[in-house]
Each structure stands twice: as structure tokens, then as C-alpha cells.
Amino acid sequence: MNPFLFTAALVGVFSLLIMYIKKRFIMHLHLSNGIKKSLNIFLYVNLLGIFLYALGRYFIDFPNWLYFLLSLPIGVLFLLFCTTLLYDIFRLILVRVPISDERRHFFKRSLDLSSLVVATSISAKAIDEARHIELERVNIKLKNLQKSYKILQLSDIHIGGIIDKNFMQNIVKRVNNCKPDLVIITGDLVDTDVDKAKNALEELKNLNSKYGTFFIVGNHEYFHNIEKIIKRVKELEIRVLENENLYIGDEKRGFNLVGVYDLFGYRTGTFMPNITKALQHKREDSPTVLLAHQPKFIQEVPAGVDLMLSGHTHGGQLYPFKALVKLQQGYVSGLHQHNSELQIYVNKGTGFWGPPMRLGASAEITEIVLSH
User: Fold this and answer.
1) Strand, coil or helix: what is 83?
2) Which domain holds residue 339?
3) Which of 27, 106, 187, 267 has the most Cβ atoms closer than 10 angstroms to its Cβ?
């Protein structure tokens, strides 16, 4: 991704959102001109924060506390935009309701106050919710599996900026406490220059499991020199599955673990997913578990796969996104029966992208028990 285009697009989109918020929300509030002016200044300060955030992603190394502050405006302005949409709808309804001017004035002031309270409250809740990573436990039955296996799934960590060495130390400790048979990372592990992520990545060496740690790339790896990232991950003694499979477990008592490149490879023309190649020579007498970053890859999955593990969606991360993500990906989070043979589990992400905010979509480490 071109950093200059990313910066221009990000600032451009949020400039439009600010124009809408000013004209359809702040301008209509029953507040003094001084307070309205302060709210407008608040909007432009947030826009400046977004611009500096983009610079911090690509050009400037900010300290963590400053990067944290600069990343918040993306979420704050988005949630304020959503609040403005609702405010606009209710305001237009109120104008048309046949009631006295006195009551209309009362309800309008109530709408103004409640909208400001809601915007502030949901932003605060979203910041708090992002601080907690839930351990999601799920039991998945697979046909022809002869014994149980415990998988710990991490996804969409997005190392870079706020996601640093300390964050990874906590994740590794929690994974190890679960005593997994294997650990899988389903993409979007690194979201910065891999050299800047070195210290955080080194923590993955401390993951302990019976069969090891396995990784597939996500779309964000393509933005930061995917070849270099794959090389660095392999140096950590993590097995990168590149359109290939291997067997996990004892002879005739285990399962095929398959991994493919991400769908974004079709856009770049490099590191493209190839499910046919990935499934070659797998053992037909054992179940097959496929790792594919984006849930919509399920449309390319042929017969013979029992379970697909994905990430990418962040569960919507901020609730209003959930419906859009579902339209684009099909599955947003949790376990689903795709057809009579194939199940899919979508991890909501262990980290976050952009603002350190989540709303109605908690971060997760997934403890998956495959049973027979």
C-alpha cells in the first residue's frame, strides 16, 4: 500500500465525515456559539491527529503513549459520525411530528443532550473494551478424528505502534497457560516494517506446545514486504504454511493441517492462494483443517475439507461495521456450519487495527478443542 495514497485517502474520508458532523449535528445543537466553536475545533484537532497517525505508521517513530493518542481520533470520529446519522434521523422525524412548539423544543433539547452523552459514552466504552482480550472456548467435532487436540488460535494481532513487546508477552503467557497441542496464527501478524516489529516478534519464540506454532499470511503482510515477513517468521522456528499441508498427530490418529496464501495475492499477482496445490498428498483417511485468513475464501474450498479457521473481520471491531463486514465476508465471528461437510470458525482478532477501540466485538484468543 502506497503510504502517500493511504494518508491522502484517510484524511480525505475523515474530512468528509467532519463536514457532515458539523452541518448535520453541531450546527443544529441548542448550544452557545462559543461551545459550538469549541466542538468544531475538537473535530479539526482529531483530523490533525489522524494525519499524524498516518505519518506515525510510515514515516515517524512516535513513543507509544503518543501513538495511542493519535490513533484514537479514527474511532472517535467514526462513532461520532454514526451518532450524527441517528441524530439526523430523529431530528427530521421530530420536525414533522404534529406536537406543540413547546413540546417540540423540549424534545429537541433532550435529543441534543442525549446525543452528546451517547457519543461520549460509546467512545469511552469502546476504549475500555479494547483493553480486554477474552479467552473463547469452543468444541468442534470432526468426522474420523480418532483423538482430541487442543488448538490455540491467534489472529489479526497487527504488531506495530501500540501492539508491542509487552502486549505479546501477555499473549504468549496466556496461550502457554492453556497448554495447547499446537498454536496457529491466521494472518495479519505484522502491520509495520518487520524490522520495527523485531522485539515483539521475538516473544513468539516463547510459545510452548506439543506440535509447534503454525502461521499463514493475511492481507496486511502484503503491505509490508511479505517475503521479508515470511523469512523473519521462519527464523522464529514457526512453520509458515504456503499453499501446503502437513500431518498433525500420531499415525492415523491425527489430522491434515492445510494453509494457503491470502486472497489479496490475486490483486498483487504474487503469493496467490492455490487450494488445489495446498491439498495435494493429504491423507484421505483423516480429517482436514484449513487455515485461510479471509472467511470468504470458503467459496473456493472444495470437498474434502472439514474445518476452516479464519480471522480478518475483527468481528466488525466497532459495531456499526459488523453489517458491512458480513456483506463482504459472509461470516463475521464464531462457529458456523457452511454445508453438510464443512464448518468454519472466525476469530474476532487478538489485537486491533487503527484505533485501540472495540465495540460489541471483543478481542479474543481462541481455545479450540477438536474432538471425535
Assistant:
1) helix
2) 134-371
3) 187
Q: Is the pLDDT of residue 37 over 80?
A: yes
* Domain C-terminal end among 110, 130, 150: 130
Q: Distance between CA 201 and CA 228 in Å, rounded?
A: 13
pLDDT in tens, 164-177: 899 999 999 999 99
87, 134 contact by CB (below 8 A): no
- Alpha-carbon gap, residue 251 to 162, rounded angstroms: 43
Task: Tell whether 146 and 101 lie within a shared domain.
Answer: no
Contact 358, 126 (CB under 8 A): yes
Pairing of strands 149-154, 182-186: parallel
Spatial strand order of the sheet with 307-310 comes to 244-248, 255-259, 288-291, 307-310, 343-346, 334-337
- 3-state SS, 213-274, equals EEEECCHHHHHHCHHHHHHHHHHCCCEECCCEEEEECCCCCCEEEEECCCCCHHHHCCCCCC
CA-to-CA dists, residue 339 to 284, 298, 304, 336, 368, angstroms: 19, 11, 12, 9, 20
DSSP H or E run through 183: strand 182-186
**If we measure between CA atoms, which residue out of 191, 241, 197 comes closest to residue 219?**
191
Cα(305)–Cα(274) distance, integer angstroms: 14
Q: What is the mean pLDDT of residues 47-66?
A: 83
Q: Please give the pLDDT value at position 60.
A: 76
**Helices (runs of H) and strands (runs of E) counted in the chain:** 10, 12
CA–CA gap between residue 189 and residue 124 (Å, rounded): 27
Last residue of a domain, one of 112, 130, 148: 130
Rounded Cα distance, 155 and 135, in Å: 13
DSSP line for 325-367: HHHHHS--SEEEE-SSS-EEEE---SS-SSSS--BS--EEEEE
* Number of domains the chain contains: 2
216 and 119 inside one domain: no
Three-state SS at 318: strand
- Same domain for 301 and 239: yes
